[in-house]
Amino acid sequence: MALNGMKKIILFLTVVVMAFPTKALKIYTLNSPDGRLQTEVVPLDGGLSCHLGLDDGLLMRSFLALDYTQGDKEFQSLSVRKATRRSVDETIASPFTRQATMRDRYNELTLTMKEGVSVVFRAYNEGFAYRFVWAGKPGKVRKETVEYFFQDDWTTTAPYVISFDSTRHEIQYSTSFENHYTTTPLSQLDPRRLCFLPLLVHGPGGVKMCITESSLSDYPGLYLHGTGKPGELAGEHAPLPKRVEQGGHNNLQLIVKEREDYVAEMNKEKLFPWRILMVGSAEEIAMNNMSYLLGEPSKVQDISWIKPGKVAWDWWNNWNIGDVNFKAGINNDTYMHYIDFASRFGIEYVILDEGWAVNGKADLFQVVPEIDLPMLVQYAKERNVGIILWAGYYAFDRDMEHVCQHYSQMGVKGFKVDFMDRDDQLVTDFYRRTAAMCAKYHLVVDFHGAFKPAGLNRTYPNVLNFEGVFGLEQMRWAGLEWDQMKYDTEIPFIRQAAGPMDYTPGAMLNGCRNSFRPCWNEPMSQGTRCHQLALYIVLESPLNMLCDSPTNYYREPNYTRFVAGLPTVWDETRVLQGEVGEYIVTARRKGNTWYIGGITNWTERDVEIDLSHLGIESAHVELYRDGANAHRRGSDNMHIALKPPVATFNVHMAPGGGFVAKVTAE
User: Which residues of 42-75 are buried (b: 16+ CB within 10 A; e: fewer)?
Assistant: First the structure.
């Protein structure tokens, strides 16, 4: 591969020289700290061409350009004025994430242009990133060109936006960023359909490349689409909204009625998002921290008040509780029941999802008469439980500071903000403003109807979670045409590379292929009970739901106590083994205890766990695994203790199955 790769790099540069024979070709090189990733940046008329190689073999090249105005001047080219370099190797704190600290090690090249912008390139051992920096007069970006040309027509695993029409315009820019993946050669991606990020490309020899972005704030998010040509992807951004109207779900959204002919308005100094290409094996992609590292440093000085944890959630189980002497629903008795449940099992929060505020009014100060919110907040406080409130996008945005101030003073601990369903410049700025305002009033945030994490959880650590995933909520209405077991074994390598996700696991009714059914009032999961349990380890989720009814959890108190006791933030994470779309085994450490979780698709499989990979020679192991009949009865599970000394152990996972092991070294 190395010799052929070098020949291809030389051939490409020869073609470039022939295309521009009158100009001296200047090439800027940038390598990763370990030297394995090699980057060459070539200034061309109109933009920059970047060539990325691994171990001297060419993986891909990209072309980046900017069509913009500054003041009354228009620019469609980039001319390098100077180049500067630096290297960084430091350790940063990364609270409320998959590990307590992260190593931030990279080499950097900055090309300062004559036209009032710069381009910054960074090479990590784990991948490559670049961003534009706006340093000129106020202006507008008409188009940012993002093009990727992979060395071959490799396979991609990519999520299309759900809504589609052949014009590829407004209907595709309005999306909840939730869809299953399409796996196909790059040339077979539908050029008319947009894909949202992250997106995975399967390279040679097991090499994977994951494309995402970070530091996305006050600038539109990136979509990619195929071109119909082998190995090519092209970028697109939603233009800036010109006119919006209140509407959508329960009148809680802002619907774009007209857009500008440019994508962003710029001020004198602005940082563009980082364009990220992660490179590595499947396991390395699943552990990649570049999205967090490339977020802007924290703007919250005191984080002592930020409390991750578990949440007793009402919406998924449709407030469907039994064995009580009152009519369950959105009322005080029901929520007091949820609070008592959370208190009994040490669950940190209860969420009041949609319905506590009057529907259709988009006014968070109009509380339904069945709810006495100050009483519930006080009732929860007395039982060491926090209250989180659901809020629709427009209802929250229209009077943001008043809402935050009022409910913070009442004792509410945070907001789940929903139904943005866009990522144009107005909405990405809304995320920033929401995070900052909630931090001001000591409120945590969970974004739903949301695009992927893009570094905001580093800048504002009170932003604990994001949706942007085809999560368990879909099982209330989606049938087996949606293969959730395959999807569950894809997202740790793709969506989760961008950061945490609010998948909302915890189903107590569990269906195998022959018994699963969508149901609104008594929903169930695809796959086994132990698959659901393992998602608490496999998926990163600092604010993690117990989605099912307290009634179902009360019936199995030992299991519920185990779930409620699982950490949600970690000191260390390692992906031990896995294959995209097949299975994954993840180990996470909290203090001196390791938790190992594994899930499989609909293929049953056996895995061997060697604790020496965690530096453990002998341990006590508490194990939840699929029962002997889990292939027929999804809830069947076994809870066993492996007698020490345990150095290795084998686990069988049923079709759609999983396991969790709690490992304590002797």
Answer: bbbeebbbbbbbbeebbbbbbbbbbbbbbeeeeb
Portion of the chain with pLDDT greater than 90, in percent? 91
Give the pLDDT confidence score for residue 23 in this predicted structure.
53
Q: Which of 506, 463, 466, 502 is nearest to 345 (CA)?
A: 506
Tokens of 389: 């409130």
| Sign of the C-alpha dihedral computed for residues 526, 528, 533 and 535 taken in this order | negative
What is the SS3 string spanning 135-196? CCCCEEEEEEEEEEEECCCCEEEECECCCCCCCCCHHHHCCCCCCCCEEEEHHHCCCCCCEC
What is d(CA 478, CA 457) in angstroms, rounded to the nearest whole number?
A: 30
**Nearest C-alpha neighbor of 279 from the set 62, 596, 571:** 62
Q: What is the DSSP letter of 519?
A: -
The pLDDT value given to residue 136: 78
Given 473, 490, 502, 636, the catalytic residue = 473
Catalytic residue among 104, 115, 126, 418: 418
Which residues of 274-342 form beta strands (DSSP E)?
274-280, 309-312
Q: Can you list the residues of the chain whose pLDDT is less than 50?
A: 1-22
Residues 6+ apart with CB under 8 A from 153: 185, 186, 187, 230, 231
pLDDT tens-place string over residues 84-99: 999 999 999 999 999 9
554 to 322, 558, 560, 622: CA distances (angstroms) = 10, 9, 7, 21
User: Whole-prediction pTM value?
Assistant: 0.95
Question: What is the four-CA torsion angle of 394, 399, 402, 408, rounded to 10 degrees?
Answer: 10
Q: In the beta sheet, which residues pair with residue 183?
A: 157
Distance CA 309, CA 301 (A): 21
CA angle, 196 as apex, 191 and 393 as ends, to 5°?
Answer: 130
Intra-chain end-to-end CA distance of the chain, in Å: 46
| Residue 418 annotated to the active site | yes
Contact 656, 513 (CB under 8 A): yes
Alpha-carbon gap, residue 574 to 560, rounded angstroms:
25
